[in-house]
Write a structure and sequence with these properties.
2 domains, Cyclase_SnoaL-like, Nuclear Transport Factor 2, Chain: A, two-stranded antiparallel ribbon
Length: 185
């Protein structure tokens, strides 16, 4: 038994699973964690389990904005999630976040989002996000011509039981609207 434990520690569970032929089952469980963004700067108050769960929920949600993969949002957001800075016309809760991503990706299909800075203290995470892409789709009545999109945002999350229950966010919408051509320079 000691040799098996040593092999698991040395190879890691995903490698061991691949070795014995069950990689499909194990890799599915680990796939979402492997693709999470790595913040350029990360500050955490401590190494507690709570801090790690706040960090994980926050990175899952950041990965949703980076990739558009709705599974990340479903993993990150609590069933009673509240957007405290809900834009006019957006549905509340998970549905609103999913629709916002779909709408924005229709305008900027190659949208990416990096986590420039992330701070985790207690049940809160603060993220400085940097969005980039090219406006090749449609935004309201404006058709993109490939112009570069490059703007920043700040998010504050409150996490409970490993899921984001509240979000406050501010986007640099002035820069974004100028880049989209919705307002003049």
């Amino acid at each position: 038994m000691k040799r098996v434990e040593t092999a698991i520690a040395r190879l890691g569970l995903p490698m061991l699973a691949a070795t014995i032929g069950v990689s499909g089952v194990v890799s599915a469980a680990y796939a979402s964690e492997e693709a999470l963004p790595v913040p350029h700067h990360l500050t955490v108050a401590d190494g507690s389990a709570r801090t790690k769960s706040v960090e994980l929920a926050s990175l899952r949600y950041a990965s949703f904005w980076n990739s558009g993969n709705e599974a990340y949002a479903r993993e990150a957001l609590a069933s009673d999630f509240v957007d405290r800075t809900l834009p006019a016309g957006r549905a509340p809760g998970l549905d609103g976040a999913l629709q916002a991503s779909r709408n924005f990706r229709a305008a900027v299909p190659d949208l990416t989002s990096e986590v420039d800075d992330m701070t985790v203290v207690g049940d809160r995470a603060m993220l400085h996000l940097h969005f980039k892409g090219h406006f090749t789709g449609q935004f309201k009545d404006i058709r993109g011509t490939g112009q570069t999109i490059d703007f920043q945002a700040f998010d504050l999350y409150r996490v409970k039981d490993g899921r984001i229950v509240e979000n406050w966010h501010l986007e640099d919408n002035l820069t974004l609207l100028r880049q989209l051509g919705a307002i003049s320079q």
